[in-house]
Specification:
Length: 245
C-alpha cells in the first residue's frame, strides 16, 4: 500500500483518539471501537483505494436510562442497578449566645427507594461516620420502562424531618450525570463548608466528575429556599451505577 495512505491512516487514527469525545470521562478510560477496510486491499503506486470505516462509541448512562427532572429514572433497556451512599452529612450543632460552636454530632439519615410509583422502602439508615462509599447498599434488575425514585430524610430528637423525593418539584433531590453543574446558588465547589466526600466528584470548574454509567443523587434535607446559601445539596448523596443486562 502506498506509504502516503499509511501516513494518512495513522493521522486519522491519532485525530480520532485525541478528540474530546474519545473518553467518556476522566475517571474511567474508555476508547471507541472501530473498523477500517480498504478496497482493493493492494493497489499500484499512484492508485487510491476506497476506504470504509465505522466507529462505535462507548455507552453512557443516558443510553441506558432517561432522567425525568428532577430525578426520576426510567430504564430505556433492561439494566442492572447498584446503589452506593457516598455521604450522609446532616449534623446537629449547639452554639453559645455568640454563635461559638460548643458541640456537634452526626444525625442519622435515611435513604429510601420507590419502584414504578410504589411505596418507598428503606435502603440506608446511618450517620456519616458509618458511610462506606465502596459498599453496594442496594441492587436491582430493571426491565425496560421501569421507573425508580429516591428520597431522603433525617431523624433527630425522636422526630423525622420532612421526606424529600425525586418527584418533588422543589429540587431538594436532584439527579446529575458526568459534566453536569449542581443547581446551587453558590457554586458547590466554592462553598465554604463543602463536605470532603463531595470533592472527589467535582472537577476544578465545579462540574460533576463520575463514571460514564453513573448517576449521582444530591439531597438537601435541612433547607427549602433554593436562594439560601445553606441550600447546598450535601446532606445525603448516592451514586447509582447502571449496566446493561
Amino acid at each position: 500500500m502506498n506509504t502516503s495512505h499509511l501516513a494518512a491512516f495513522a493521522a486519522a487514527l491519532a485525530s480520532a483518539c485525541l478528540s474530546p469525545n474519545c473518553f467518556a470521562d476522566s475517571s474511567e478510560l474508555q476508547l471507541p471501537v472501530g473498523s477500517l477496510t480498504a478496497s482493493p486491499g493492494w493497489v499500484r503506486e499512484g492508485v487510491k483505494p476506497q476506504l470504509t470505516w465505522s466507529i462505535t462509541y462507548p455507552e453512557v448512562v443516558t443510553d441506558l436510562v432517561e432522567i425525568e427532572e428532577p430525578g426520576t429514572i426510567c430504564a430505556k433497556v433492561p439494566v442492572n442497578m447498584d446503589v452506593r451512599v457516598i455521604g450522609a452529612s446532616v449534623k446537629a450543632v449547639w452554639t453559645d449566645s455568640l454563635g461559638k460552636i460548643l458541640k456537634w454530632q452526626w444525625v442519622p439519615t435515611e435513604a429510601r427507594i420507590s419502584l414504578n410509583g410504589g411505596s418507598y422502602s428503606r435502603i440506608f439508615y446511618n450517620t456519616q461516620d458509618q458511610v462506606n462509599p465502596n459498599t453496594i447498599i442496594y441492587s436491582k434488575s430493571l426491565s425496560k420502562g421501569n421507573k425508580v425514585d429516591f428520597g431522603g430524610r433525617y431523624y433527630f430528637q425522636s422526630l423525622w424531618s420532612h421526606f424529600y423525593t425525586t418527584t418533588n418539584g422543589n429540587y431538594n433531590v436532584v439527579a446529575l450525570v458526568n459534566g453536569d453543574v449542581p443547581p446551587t446558588t453558590v457554586p458547590l465547589y466554592q462553598q465554604p463548608t463543602i463536605e470532603s466526600f463531595i470533592k472527589p466528584y467535582l472537577d476544578e470548574e465545579g462540574r460533576i466528575k463520575i463514571g460514564p454509567k453513573d448517576v449521582i443523587y444530591l439531597m438537601e434535607l435541612t433547607h427549602t429556599d433554593r436562594n439560601d446559601g445553606g441550600f447546598d445539596l450535601q446532606d445525603l448523596a448516592l451514586i447509582v451505577t447502571f449496566t446493561k443486562q
